[in-house]
Amino acid sequence: MKVAHVSDTHLGYMQYNLYERKRDFFNSFRQIVDKCLELEVDLLVHSGDLFESFNPDVESLSFVVEELKRLKDKGIEVVAITGNHDKALRKDKKPPQVLLKGLELLKLLEPHGELHIKDLYIAGFGYTPARYIDYVRERAFPKWEKEAEKAGASVFLFHQAVDQFLPYNGAYELLITQLPKNFTYYAAGHLHTYRVEKVKGGILSYPGSTEFRTFDEAENGKRGFNLIEIEKRKFKRIELEGLRPFLILKTSEERGDEELKELLQKVKSQDKKPVVVILYTYKTTPIEKFKFLLEEIRRNSLYLRVKAVEEALTEEVVGGGKSLNEVFEEFCKANSLPSEVVNLGKEVIAHSPEDTREILREFLKERLKDNFQVVEKFISP
């Protein structure tokens, strides 16, 4: 049986408040469906954060319905769990996947569950705060382990950060030793960069996000999904093609003029207007010296972010040859800060000071959900 594993598609996310970016997230999902049809997969499993929000807009819902219909028409089953973005944590709210389940476009394991598709056994649970995971482990894992052992071919779906990939305390929700045994494939979600490891006799993988949400993802990851032939235990990575380019330049006052000119030519040569990030360090020459080059880059880009850091300040604050990001991670680890704080801090560090308000606004909007409208008017313009 051929199984496609996808995660963290975040449909409906309008990054930088640009409609083009919303369409980019749609395009990556459509390409996955195209690939599934081309490769004649039997099953697609989605390990959470199908949507950006538990209350997606009508356009995003309609888009997903049409794409899942394409899979259904070819007899391709879809099994999903919820992620932290599309999971409704309030008791009176249901995740949008419930609607798709009602339309018989997917099977949903919510908040946890199990099922058989032909000879394949599937079990899993959606995003669960760390304090509640022991409840699921104690009540469900022993049964799932027995069923997986009997089945031979099996998939375990979960949307949690595992300690092996986010080792500092407070960032992970699940120890790798706590995963149930006997599964052939562990389909993980939540981390946005591609990872694959052998664990408990099976294969564990985070396929990563299908479209970049941060510059760190763009620098360290690739957009794609996984293809597994379960019975043969054959694993293959499928990279998506033709998506919007992300161009990242790390430069300094010594190299700035030459490298910004090269970047401009690269920007102009792209088939699609790229998202561009410039990280500039200097001692005496501020980034404003290159304002004409920067304006030309901005004019030919979909979006441009510039972060300029004074080198003397960086040395004073960081010291020891460590980056500010490394120092921040060490601080978070030493103080056992929760993953939300860690991720927020890293995103603020990665961007220009003028972007901080937008980042904090998105952070509050994501966590306050419906209540965000109440506090939004108090956020200074």
Structure commentary:
Helix content is 37%, strand content 23%. It is built from 12 helices and 15 strands. The chain has a 6-stranded mixed β-sheet with strand order 4-3-2-1-11-12. The longest helix is centred in the middle third of the chain and has 22 residues.
Assign the CATH class of the largest domain: Alpha Beta
Structural class: alpha/beta
Task: Give the overall shape.
Answer: globular
For the largest sheet, list the strands in their spatial order. 4-3-2-1-11-12
Number of strands: 15
Unreliable spans are none
* Ends apart, CA distance between termini: 54 Å
The pLDDT mean sits at: 89
How many domain modules?
A: 2
CATH topology of the largest domain: the name is Purple Acid Phosphatase, chain A, domain 2
Q: Sheet with the most strands?
A: 6 strands, mixed
Question: CATH-wise, what's the superfamily of the largest domain?
Answer: Metallo-dependent phosphatases
Assigned CATH architecture of the largest domain: 4-Layer Sandwich
Summarize the structure.
It contains twelve helices and 15 strands.
